[in-house]
Amino acid sequence: MKVKPVNQSAKSGPASPAYPQPVLGNPAATLMESGVGNCFPGLEFDLRQLDVRFFPGLVFAFPGITQNGPDGTQGAQLVYVNTGDDPIFLEDRKWIHDLANTLNGEQGGALGGGQWYLHWVEQGGNRIELYDNIIWQNTVTKTPYEGEIAWWIIRLIQIDPDPDFADLTIALTQRDENGQPSGHPVVLKGKRRAYLDDEGMIPDVYRPGELTASMCSPWTHDFRDCACQYWASNHPDVALGEVQDPQQLADHTDDLDAAQAVTFLDWMRRRSDPARDIAAQPTIELARPMRYDPYEINLHWEELDFVLQGQETSGTFKPDREDLNEDPYPDLAALIHDLSHNLARFEFSLAMEYLYAFFSLRAPDDVSPEQERDWPGLTNDLRAARQLILSVAISEMTHLRWVNQTLWTLHDMHPGYGPYLPVVAPAPGVPGEDDEIRPSQLRIATQKVIGEFVEVERPGGDLDTEYAKMVHYMREHPGQFPPGLDQLAVRIDSDGLNHYQKFRDVLRILDPYSGCPDVYLRPLTEAAPDDPRAQPALALLDAIVAHLRSGYSAEAATAQSNAARLASQDEITTARDLMHQLYDAAEVLARDHDLGVPFFAHAGQYEAASRG
Amino acid sequence: MADGGNRPGPEAHLASNLLLVAETAGIYALDPDDMAEVAGRLNAGLPVLADLGLDTDAPLPVIAPGPVRALALTVSQACNMACTYCYAAGGSFGGPETRMTEATAFAAIDRLIGDAPPGGAVKIAFMGGEPMLARPLILASVRYAREHAAARAVQVGFSITTNGTLLTEADADFLAEQGFTVTVSLDGGRETNDRLRPMRGGAGSFERVANRLAPLLARADRIPLTARVTVTPKNINIRQVVGDLSSLGFSSVGVSPMLTSPTGDGALKPSDFSTLLDEMIATGEDWLAATEAQQPHAFSNLATAVQELHRGKARSHGCGAARDYLAVDASGRYSACHRFVNDPLGAMGDLDDGIDHAGRARFLAERRVEAQSECARCWARKLCGGGCHQEVLHVGRPACDYVRGWLDFALHAYGRLLVSRPDLFDA
Fold it and tell me: Residue A496, preceding bond cis, omega within 30 degrees?
């Protein structure tokens, strides 16, 4: 028998019946801007604040409706006009000159007096007013959209890829006491600001604090009324507790170890509760009986522990760095020498060692159904372990760049030390156990090797101490360094703890398989430097090193010209593309031939280039 | 044609060559050669869907209720009329006559708009009693809602259900300007209406309403205008009633049978339902004939029914009460709809403590047609959704045979129009 679908429900097919109730769009939680820190780790700023500077030279605020209802002050309010400290006005483009002239002329002057509001925006022939028109007794009243709506409209403005094409026109007006637009509009032609490029956010545009200005802040007590559990998005949700009982230690770690506890606790838990150390719950509902509501923090904030390095601490932290009491470097030359001869090379070597270990782990896709049945969870464990090791390797590559950045900054500031030469080469040895230097070597990710990685990254170990020394020296001799340069070293140093914890996690994840290495390890051997199968990978590595060198050189010169800036971006982008190709080539080599890339095969060549 | 005595079968229902799948509300055309066999098996209570490849085990998802999108403001719990059958018992819902204050109305509007997503839409219905007794409150509420919704870019639509006796020229201007949808309660022509819908003093209301309607009818191009007829044993001559109201100038007339009234007065009795069905079908045939001849006809029940069948939305509830829609009364209490005002069975929180969302969810879960054992074997369950909650909770389901008979007729009508007027239906 045959049937033919007739109505709309039938046409949608029996397997996908019409929904019994209408579903309106996506749930709010899927929108990026409605996310809170819990759902979007790393949300440290209010996305909306990016658009307060959507138009070059102008700064807006987006106030909502007051408690007494729409009083005509809601919408996109002009806060101030400033062409002076907006870096876009340094760019040499016609529309920027025109805009600067307008803003510094009569129209810009008008914006300096009274309260102005964004009235409409126009792009590609489409004009959107930031007002709703209400007809009332045959007259049209304009009700300004509140800040959130105004921001939605602004957010939709596009960026034409041509930087010389000014395709955005906006108008500003003042308002009378009834919230109605009044007077002559000021019309400006320009372009939507880009706040992201390939490198991430463009930092120079925003003032410190501007991106977090609209967020709940405990010190202003906003959080008292915070009903959304948002308070504050940058508090720890969970922390490791202090460990009193050695039985609770996860492994062979000792009391000085930063991450010895194994159970995450709810940082907001009621400390008076007899079960004060019970594990954090997965949902707010489950946790609520055991935790303070946000408004209660007013009364109990003193009970909340300080969290250092992910762990609650009740005592006063004393850094165990007696060796820092004396100057770690006799002079700046020694520091520069240390950077270029040791640290940059350490980072390179470690990145390669970690990559080699990464490729020695089987890919999750290689696990057969039988193996997964015999070793439930193997696929996911491999995925996690590989992800962790790769993230540390990438982080070391980032450090290599930061060390080079520190170097070119110092050479630029102190020309007496000669020109900057990029250092992209391995070190013959890296810090190992007991602060001994051990030879750099490519090894598969056995538990013993991962254990050594843990030691390299251990807080207080040799590598960690190197950067701590540098920070110490920079802070003791501020005149020799541009402000903020020590932050780079601080970031490298604090990443070290992160690496240390990640490798400890890898140890734990792979521990169940340690008796049967075949289950998770490839029988990888290092390919001979002249093995034809390894040549594509080696050629890619050579090219990556070359592009990084020329990219760093160009970037070092970016202060002098925009051309250098563009060149550096091209070089780095090329290097990144090549890294993806190298990843694929190394994966094929390991999977199909059980061979590892001999990452140090051309070390001498890289070394020679780094010596100029 | 419609026999009304079609045996309820749970899986599907056959109306000429159209097979309605009970669970999904999907409608399929059968090959003419298969019709006899399918009909036979349906009558014998045997399964048919599996052989047609239409069976599915996937239950429809249960979706948690979202924010309320429509609100009935019971602006006046008083009325200038004294209809014998009114669910509001003279407009007061059995309590003292009260009028809503501005503060209550504004608070309810604030909550409605505040819960709406920016860029969304809400509806506000002014109900009573007779809402026009509270004319200043309606004006103030519309203005307030417009301003607050505009700032959040929320679209707000308005509707009013009125007996029409108090409308002025200025009111009509206002309703047109603000884009109101207007429903006028009328029960028929002069003679019928005056018997059923007396004024409080006992005088007939028809003359008065007819005069008062002129300004509204004069703006029919700007005001979506519907007459709503409450069918009781005394005006069961639906064909006549629809004709009378159409002559009065209404382009849309909807009828709804009266199953329950607070006094028990005027409600249809089981013996009335076959007459009711015959009248509905006769009026429906008129509408079909007019529609096929490309002529307008006011009878909106069938116009709505065929479009609903075409959409084929499987309903778990008969209406949006409690799910999309709530009513708020003069004292600021929410109820599942305007018919549940002052009725604890439909209480949904209040303005002070907020909408009782748990109560909404509970009400909706309990009232789902899937939870009604007597609906489980009815082929029309997902079209009807289990009926009006308020009627079911108070008098049960006395009219199911009538409902099935009407839907069977509507299915046949849908089949006819698919051939004769395919332009009426979206793809």
Answer: no
